[in-house]
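Friendly challenge for the regulars: who can give me the structure tokens for this chain first? No prize, just bragging rights.
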Amino acid sequence: MSGLRVAVIEDSVLLREGLVLLLQELGHTVVASWGDAGPLGDGSSLEADVLVTDVRLPPDFRDEGLVAAKKLRRDRPDIAVLVLSQYVEGVYARELLASGEGSVGYLLKDRITSVDDLDDAITRVVDGGTVLDPKVVAQLFAAQRDPLEALTAREREVLVLMAEGHSNSAIAERLFVGTGAVEKHVRSIFGKLGLEESSAENRRVRAVITWLQRS
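First reply, four minutes later:
Bragging rights claimed.
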């Protein structure tokens, strides 16, 4: 998806300027780029489709980016959020997903291996999905095993790939099975997590979020 409006928050000048250039090369418009979250305010005047932000920002380099992202999602749920971090922060990922509305992502900077990966992640969150780095998914999985006891091993594999943002056809390719088999597993996951009928994309997002939030 080209032509998106993107806001960037990244304290490293080199990374920020490099990210701006990459986004522009992909055909997106960078409507704002800041070194800290202060200028974002309540986001009321931000004309963007997606915010791309780091977690640890000035002045304290703790969770300023996450706090800003959560506030933006609360005030402006129409704007998607993609967090780029150097660290695997399972707690931060859970907090970001807490609203249950999707349109969020959490990726590790050094594991984005191509411009296409970045573009795909931005497109997915703007489309209402979730995108999580496999390392983040693994940490969340390790911390929350009990709620998954009802799922088969194959259903867990499918749910992990769903959390990473893959479509049913992409999951089928990775698992070397037919798309119909994946769809059957997805329906079973929905049923075991007690998700009532709604749009397929909505239930998909809620399945991932329900899994991540249970303890």
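DSSP finds nine helices and six strands in the chain. Residues 195 and 203 are 7 Å apart (CA to CA). Your move, everyone else.
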